[in-house]
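Standup notes
- HV: blocked on the assembly model, inputs below
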Amino acid sequence: MSGLEVLTSRAGELRAKLGEQVHLGVAEATFDEAARIAESSVKRRGRVFDWDWKLDRILTSRIWGFPIMLGILAVVFWLTIKGANVPSALLADGLFWVEDQLAFAFRSVGAPGWAEGFFVHGIYRGLAWVISVMLPPMAIFFPVFTLLEDLGYLPRVAFNLDRMFKSAGGNGKQALTHTMGFGCNAAGVIATRIIQSPRERLIAIITNNFAPCNGRWPTLIMLATVFVAAAFSPSVGSIVAASTLVGIVMFGVLVALLVSGALSRTVLKGEPSAFALEMPPYRKPQVLRVFYTSLIDRTLFVLWRAIVWAIPCGALAWIMGNTYVGDLSVMAHVSGFLDPFGHALGLDGVILLAYIIAIPANEIVVPTMLMAYMNVDRMIEIDNMVDLKALLVVQHDWTVLTAVCLMLFSLLHNPCSTTIWTIYKETGSKKWTWVATLLPLAIGFLVCFLVATIWRAVG
Amino acid sequence: MKDRFDIDRTGHDYVVALAGNPNTGKSTLFNGFTGLRQHTGNWPGKTVTRAEGTLRYEDKRYKLVDLPGAYSLIADGQDEQVARDFVLFGKPDCVVIVLDATNVERNLALALQILEVTGRVVIALNLIDEAQRRGITVDAEKISQELKVPVVPTVARDKKGLIELAAAIADVCSGKAVAPSRRRELDPELESAVTELERLVEAVVPGVPNARWIALRLLDGDPSIEEGLASGEFATPATPTREGSGKPSEVAS
């Protein structure tokens, strides 16, 4: 017998003999001593108004916790939508004015038509779209969200969601990593490190994608504003848009819960482990730091990533739209091929193609889609949301169903390539990476198909 | 020279670990001390991030290692294991334990556990402003008397008390103020079992610091300890340490 075997078997014997005594003598004794020292060194002035505790009682109460949470979420979205409108339009005006000037410059130096198309109407337009559509909402949403984080509200959200995730067979901490996923799914996946049980961690990783991330907010916000809100009178439009977004978030949580429940009852069976969720005290937010970190670390980071990916994707989209095989462009061939499939999902071929091109970054789904639409029809200037809607509705037969299905598909599809790579690194397993990639996509297909089919049958 | 924790001591006189419960302002303290002289990476072989940086005080340079937040040395989860392993086997010259002044009792559990394995400890009693606001006063002197280690009140956010804390760290590192580690009184039957296992542990992993602690955890049936022993993770390579960075076990009673 090796020394180690002697040691472990002897330890086993002694443990059997001493039983509970060890635990009582060591662990419990530590807590008793901590209590004794604290007793002798800590004094509490009587009856101090403990507003932290009072606030927690309300914010995490069984009755008020959820309505308050949804209300705060709605206000954040409303601020984002309302506030982003004007700067978005200004940015678009400015950037598309520059596009005209660039096109003029290309022509005046006698550049060939394809160069003007490729650089100005392909790459530059893609960039202009990404910036004008994404920058203003992000510049409002992220600081507000970070402010809530800094105040200490997010752990309360996790507390509210904890019960639900636990009853779905997951770990309560999944509520925290899910919340993190609203920022970035790759970050959410990394955050699952706080979950100790490998089973529960896998569940959290696989379902993290159901939290719409930075890259998807702009798509969702645009669709909610342009399509859903437009069906109502302008006075309530932005409120409707904000409520739609809250609904999408809640639907994502619901799907995450259902999938967690399904996984923990089938391939990832087991009892949920217990843990203590700590409520850190509310702290005065460091406002300047919040603005700095949310603008630099989040807004500019995400925008930069979108720009970096928009260039090759814009170029690819332009090339596909302008390379002809027979009478039709490559883009038209591919999207035509995808069209029946897209139609069954309430979408169309171009949208599916945009999702394929945009696997590296969800941020560029809408720009890619628009580029595809605009190229097919030769250039159309889009300066504002009304023109955008006209393009989609009049020329490409978009309906409210298309917008609803696209929002659902945006919520439920494969993670972006960065997140997929992160999942592979964190799980070290090809199998689970595939599951985490394809499961959300399959769910997306299923949900969109059902919605489209029922909608068409009823309407 | 690097050890299995991948700590590069080059250009530094001492290694100081920052330990504490989550949400005690540990990282704020770390940032306050190191400013921009810090970098982050991963603990070797673990998916746990690590921040380390340099504190200059008087004529010495201290390498500060920000350990993951932990409630206990009886580790639960990767983060806590990393913190536990570094305190036990990383041979830091000083461990700064950050206590949340609004929650002394719970925070003391970790402090007491760490004090059982090393006396090279300074306690930062942080968030005292927060405590005051809630009508809580904490007697730092009294805690210091009980634990026999320096206790420095701090408000890390406002950089209050950092100089006093640095001075206390310097005293511990230079060996001026090192307390004996607290050896727990056990009843005779338990004591003899622990002593027996302690000798067996030393036979399996010669020269391991804190054999007694390992023996106690084994007796309590901690599976991560058996794993650590089996994988050889606890076997600290016999690298000669510089003077002044005495093994924690040397200062044990």
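- HV (later): unblocked. DSSP finds 19 helices and three strands in chain A. Chain A touches chain B through 47 residues (CB under 8 Å).
- Next: hand off to the docking folks.
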